[in-house]
Design a protein that fits this description.
This protein has 21 helices and 2 strands. It is mainly α. The two termini are 36 Å apart.
């Protein structure tokens, strides 16, 4: 926290309105990314710079030393503490880890094994990857899950010569990361924030969320099958031809060194275990958080290429990292300009509506709000509002915020970190999906998922 007092300060309404317009303009500029021929990191970076300049001139930001846990003070530029370095380090570490371990052939081996298991049937393969996405999102984190699953998907579909299905697969997986992020208390940061404020235990969270996740996963996969035209093999000739193709696949063909392969397998297993059990690591290691785990394992596997690590650093998507850093700065300024506070207070007034309209509107508005801004501060603000109102732990309001904050990430490509990663992989594969294109395709999925959540909250919670 900052050493200088950050007590609530009066912000004129016109100032909040101006920054609200800036936030809307940034979203609009991202939607027109293809037309203005600019990378998303440049677009958000320019808005971050504008926000910092205006916020400084209008004296919205607090400058001064940052207080460390041991009460020492350290001087940092005001925009450094505003960045969620946990997300940045997870993306950087996981990207490096996947890039290095992919050279061992472990992901090719996994992808070919799954492809062989599917018998070359695209629909069955989508089911396998969809379930794996939900599982990885639940036990790891959405970003890491999308990076790993995205790598496996591209390998599988290229081996099957079905690259035309790649867009549907990757987009579906991106949407399922946010569904899988609802499965456990530790699957996403909003879950942790709201769950802690409401006093929801790990077991209770899983019992309540699991039925919805199961139904939503099935519905999402069925919608993807129809929307993206992912059909199963029907005739005996198709099945026989696909079987001949997958039987010719050699899972070991991409393994340059058996020793490095098994080193990567062990590293991947340890990586997953440490991420899944990060909060239970002994000797206080849990305090190092997931970002450190990702960077540490990236460093471990980089030892295998210790003399040529520069090529792996060059492969990192720096545009994605810069985008997130700038986005966090924008959100930080929006908090100080009380834009997020206005959003939170507006949502809080909805609680005065009669039941069940109040729960319905709260969930939907939480989803819409989280689709254009970071769901972490939004979830924190709404949890604080509900706690301040003395909301009972059994109230459906808590679950409205949890479902809304997670599922809102499926409305726009900037609604969650995992959908941003999915869009990055899609663009890297030159599949031609724009911001507006994402919204057009994803909104039907998001609407159905949110309607299911509303019904589930009203009936089962």
């Amino acid at each position: 926290m900052l050493a200088i007092d950050e007590a609530a300060h009066a912000v004129p309404g016109w100032v909040t309105a101006v920054f609200g317009i800036i936030l809307f303009a940034m979203v609009a500029a991202l939607a027109l990314e293809e037309k203005i021929h600019a990378k998303k990191s440049i677009i958000v970076g320019l808005f971050a710079g504008l926000c910092l300049i205006l916020a400084t001139v209008l004296k919205l930001l607090v400058f001064g030393p940052v207080e460390l846990p041991d009460h020492d003070l350290i001087n940092l530029p005001v925009y450094i503490p505003s960045i969620d370095w946990g997300v940045i380090t997870i993306i950087l570490g996981a990207s490096l880890f996947v890039e290095v371990t992919s050279r061992s052939g472990v992901f090719t081996w996994m992808a070919i094994s799954l492809t062989r298991k599917s018998g070359g049937d695209p629909w069955r393969l989508l089911i396998f990857y969809g379930l794996l996405t939900v599982l990885f999102s639940a036990v790891l984190n959405n970003v890491t899950a999308m990076i790993i699953i995205g790598s496996l998907t591209t390998v599988s579909l290229k081996k099957l010569h079905r690259s035309e299905l790649m867009l549907g697969f990757l987009l579906t997986e991106g949407l399922l990361t946010n569904v899988g992020g609802l499965l456990t208390l530790i699957s996403s940061v909003p879950n942790i924030i709201v769950g802690k404020a409401a006093g929801i235990s790990f077991a209770k969270f899983f019992i309540v969320a699991a039925p919805y996740v199961a139904v939503s996963t099935v519905v999402t996969l069925l919608m993807a099958k129809r929307i993206f035209g992912i059909k199963g093999l029907t005739t005996n000739e198709e099945k026989a031809e696909a079987k001949r193709m997958v039987d010719s696949f050699d899972a070991s063909e991409g393994i340059p060194s058996e020793r490095f392969f098994w080193f990567s397998v062990v590293s991947l297993g340890a990586f997953i275990v440490c991420l899944a059990g990060q909060s239970a690591l002994p000797f206080g290691l849990d305090k190092l958080e997931m970002g450190f785990v990702a960077l540490f394992f990236a460093g471990v596997v980089l030892i295998a290429y210790k003399n040529e690590v520069d090529k792996f650093y060059a492969a990192v998507d720096w545009d994605l990292l810069a985008f997130f850093a700038a986005l966090f700065v924008v959100i930080h300024v929006m908090e100080h300009a009380l834009v997020l506070d206005v959003i939170g207070q507006a949502i809080a007034t909805l609680l005065k509506l009669p039941s069940p309209v109040d729960s319905t509107v709260l969930l939907i508005s939480s989803a819409v709000a989280s689709s254009v801004t970071d769901n972490i501060p939004l979830a924190a603000m709404l949890a604080q509002i509900l706690d301040g109102l003395g909301t009972d732990a059994t109230s459906p309001y808590w679950w409205c915020v949890i479902f809304g904050a997670n599922l809102g990430g499926n409305i726009t490509p900037i609604g969650s970190a995992s959908t941003v990663v999915a869009m990055t992989i899609i663009q890297r594969q030159k599949l031609g999906l724009t911001f507006v294109g994402f919204v057009k395709v994803a909104v039907p999925f998001a609407v159905v998922q949110i309607i299911l959540a509303v019904v589930y909250v009203l009936v089962a919670v």
